[in-house]
Amino acid sequence: MKIVVCIKQVPSTNKVQLHPETNTIIRDGRQSVTNPFDTYAIEEAIQIKEKTGGQTIAISMGIPETERLLKDAVGRGIDQAVLLSDKAFAGADTLATSYTLSLGIRDLMPVDLILCGKMAVDGDTAQIGPELAEQLGIPHVTDVTEVLEVKSNYLICKKEIDNGYQLLKVELPALLTVVKDINMPRMPSIEGVLQSETVEVIRKDAQDLKAEISKLGLCGSPTQVVKTFMPERDSEAIEISGSTEEKAVKIKKVIEEVLGNGGSKD
């Protein structure tokens, strides 16, 4: 079984900087980490491989420094790593990103299973997994909490829904997005770290992927950030003291002032 895991680099700090012209996130490889949800996808891929055999491959679209995070995945037990890196990919929204990833995964075909984290913590869209599956024309299941059984042509998984769970049988090849409850990611082993230092991360650019330039980066992104801003906070705390009756009167006065209704009973 061949399993591909999609990982993304995200800022390791809350102080995210945006490009003044494109309004896209400025990504600094030195201050980036693997998207937390993707670490659970990495672990699940390794666990499935340990049970069924086969090969695991981590793939990412990002700046050259993303290679460091791919090597970390190898240190945790992933067999191979692929980095899709090209200036033409810059500024991509979820549609352009899923298009680029689909080209990279097509080069790895045949693939039995693709795993993604539920969402990226720097965007919170949770769109890449489903869009990637649609690009590849394969079934997908989101918010998977457990993979119960894996066979050569299907798997059974448990999906989280609003009021409980669903058990689903999914034909392979397929794509799953996983939540944090699915497992506990392992740390890189000493042997794994040593191996990751010597592993060759396969790099591919737009030309290697035979990509349509009009579908990449900002050009291929139908959604773009128009404006970003920090919300103004003007809240304040008021201490109210006195007897119960006095507190009630003061609270009523504060509410009336906030609502600006001059004491109306409406």
UniProtKB/TrEMBL annotation:
<dbReference type="InterPro" id="IPR033948">
    <property type="entry name" value="ETF_beta_N"/>
</dbReference>
<dbReference type="InterPro" id="IPR012255">
    <property type="entry name" value="ETF_b"/>
</dbReference>
<dbReference type="GO" id="GO:0009055">
    <property type="term" value="F:electron transfer activity"/>
</dbReference>
<protein>
    <recommendedName>
        <fullName>Electron transfer flavoprotein small subunit</fullName>
    </recommendedName>
</protein>
<feature type="domain" description="Electron transfer flavoprotein alpha/beta-subunit N-terminal">
    <location>
        <begin position="22"/>
        <end position="213"/>
    </location>
</feature>
<dbReference type="InterPro" id="IPR014730">
    <property type="entry name" value="ETF_a/b_N"/>
</dbReference>
<dbReference type="InterPro" id="IPR014729">
    <property type="entry name" value="Rossmann-like_a/b/a_fold"/>
</dbReference>
<dbReference type="Pfam" id="PF01012">
    <property type="entry name" value="ETF"/>
</dbReference>
